[in-house]
Amino acid sequence: MSDLDFVSGTKPIPIERGEGVYLYARDGTEYVDAGASYACTPLGHSHPAVVEAVQEQAGKLTFVDSSYPVRSRENAYAALVASAPDDLTQAWFCNSGTEANEAALKFARSATGNSKIVAATRSFHGRTMGSLAATWKDKYKKPFEPLAGDVEFVPYGDAEALASAVDEETAAVILEPIQGEGGINVPPEGYLETARECTTDAGAALVFDEVQTGMGRTGQMWACQGVGVTPDILTTAKGLGNGLPIGGIVVRDWIADGAASHNATFSGGPVVTAAAHATISTLVEEEWPAHAAEMGDYLTAELESAVGDEIREIRGEGLLLGVELKRGANRVARDLALEQQVLALPAGRTVLRLLPPLVIDEAEADGLVEAMAAVIAPTTDAQ
Ligand SMILES: *Cc1c(COP(=O)(O)O)cnc(C)c1O
Known about the structure:
single chain, 39% helix, binds pyridoxal-5'-phosphate, globular, 2 domains, four-stranded mixed β-sheet, Aspartate Aminotransferase, domain 2
């Protein structure tokens, strides 16, 4: 257990079972999942509503292709569209975040007749050729070039640079409402509004990648609802099936009307849509987004008072939090796992990412703060 390698992502902690915010190793050790499952379990691990929906659906019909209407897809579709801003009226399911963004970029191109994509520095949109082309980090891109090109990058958060990059040749602007992988970067006020205005003026599609910000994490079902800006295409995945592999896009009518042929064999399969329907319904009916907002404020305040002097800042919204450390995040993440049984993820060199399940309660949050204090500010403890 001494050579944990968080850089390559290999963590020699064999996980056997999960429940709520906890993961259990084969030897029975209990870990707090404070982000290690990449925001994929908003309702917590093995949530009974999702488990039941999946078991029942798998027993009835595990798969039939998407040309046949099935109840679980209809339910998931209706729930997804109902949860999205009013002007987003039609949806399509895929299997992952990168596929959702591929579809968004393809549909933006076919609906506008243009090819140019504008993306932001420090963005992450996925690892297939198209989404990867709109992703910032060279480490992910260089070995695989040439990618599906025609992407121009502008500094994230710089409204003026964005507005001047968008013209009548632009097919889409793709942005994360809050950047996740890039270090939990919250854009300045007015930035997403500018993105909306300049894309509307140019006739381009505004794509919000809500793969990480969505599913209630930032305090609303979708982060764009918190800022009151509706994109033309919203993409989702990660938490959509509470751990099952499903992604999706929700679009305005003009995008759907201009969409050329696109599909995937497993699109909207019965089992994954049963999971998505159960996940969205439970999040909405039990008001977990509001709880996420409260717990985000609580966690931020408690962390500030416990380790405020030892960190640079805490950024984010709801339970999408980035703790900017004064030292390397990899080492802190390793110590948290080994010494405190807390699983958290670095996002960039010095940022620790906290994305716990939205169902985390105050006592669990207190435990998380204590564990972080023990690793980040051990001397404070000894006083
Ligand atoms: C994780 C992520 C993706 C890619 O999702 P995959 O399911 O891994 O393909 C895309 N965009 C954002 C913002 C993400 O966080």
